[in-house]
């Protein structure tokens, strides 16, 4: 079963109930949008940034919206993009989903820095579509514009095959994101933002997407952003177009588009299907040669264009945009993704192979050596925590370590690294630990439990970075200096702990550095 990433219950709700009145009307050329006026902040929810990706636009790059003279009310959350898998229509989701949300200071006396945030969901769902930017604007002293957006995911966003390449586009979920960034360049000034001071951020698959945009088109800089933030970064398993063909062929077979006259143009047959029929066969399955489905089947594909090579290799080769950055991860990134019944190394290896099928017997033997049997937890298999730690480090923690290292290696000095380690009592008891993307709640003002204490500290660091490209320039009073990353000085990271008065710089443990360097050495041989 593919896990659904949920940050915190508060992220699925408005930040806090506030009185709303009709806000200002903004004309972006193809339409005018009226949002909500809050206290010192204007909010637009559901601003269309691209045409409906339906019918002939299905599996094509985003298209410009159709012009209309009708005033568009941007007053409520838009529906999200359809996820994979599904056995029918998902509540609150729609194929017509390419909308963004904006929070901006009411003060338009000067243009404000912009934060464009990409939500996660493993590139298979929009996992946190209702993240509210109000808290960040307030934390940033009303000197920041926040933008969030939907992008196509799963079979609708990342289907790849020779047929799609010939009469469509590959990686359209990432192209949606890029289209939104281009929209920001054209229009954000009308909302009070400065298009020349854009920070691109993301969590989980959103952070992986940040990596992909840094390396897109061989590292070409189109001026879409000037700094980046990545929470729980990953180098996901990447396939070539040819390797992705099995996904398309399986969908075609389920749709019966390989029968009779329909087989003459299988992609047309799929485009002709109603969305209601298509979602009924929107299933996932194992990679070829495996018996279990991966956590995330659909993902970015090496298309020779947007993604020219494995992302990890692109960074190693220096083929990426060099900008100020923050990267990091939580202590126990893999626990929520790992089956609870892992009872031996064979179970661990089967799980890892399901997600990274190019792992060899030698690779797995090394992983088994590096990750011994770990602590036991009620209701979990003896090797659950072992598998969770290996998977978490391989997919999330090590990219969070490797990216600052690659940036520093290519001469970028404005790089900050972090380790979020705020442990909730219930997660200490059940073994989940400090979970995937837990840190994001403290930055967006939706923290609960012990994370609340970090909220005013960590959010100020990030607001400072978005405004000044320096985490320390406008940090909270009394907060320690967050030292820039230095690969020759113990791989320093800011360690966020339960007691914020004890936040301090730390060096990456040698065993973690060794494990991550080994995973990095595998790179393209295992598909990332």
Short synopsis of the structure:
The protein has 528 residues and is an alpha/beta fold. It is built from 16 helices and 15 strands. 31% of the residues lie in helices and 16% in strands.
Q: What does the secondary structure layout of this molecule look like, with pairings?
A:
Elements: E1 21-27, E2 32-37, E3 41-48, E4 72-73, E5 99-105, E6 112-118, H1 134-139, E7 145-149, H2 154-158, H3 162-166, H4 172-187, E8 193-203, H5 205-219, E9 227-231, E10 239-240, H6 245-255, H7 266-272, H8 275-280, E11 301-302, H9 311-316, E12 325-330, H10 345-355, H11 361-370, H12 384-409, E13 415-420, H13 425-430, H14 438-444, H15 455-468, E14 492-496, E15 504-507, H16 510-522
Parallel strand pairs: 2-4, 6-7, 6-8, 8-9, 9-12, 10-11, 12-13, 13-14
Antiparallel strand pairs: 1-2, 2-3, 3-5, 5-7, 14-15
Helix pairs in contact: 10-12, 12-16, 14-15
Protein name: Carboxylic ester hydrolase
Enzyme class: hydrolase
Family: Belongs to the type-B carboxylesterase/lipase family.
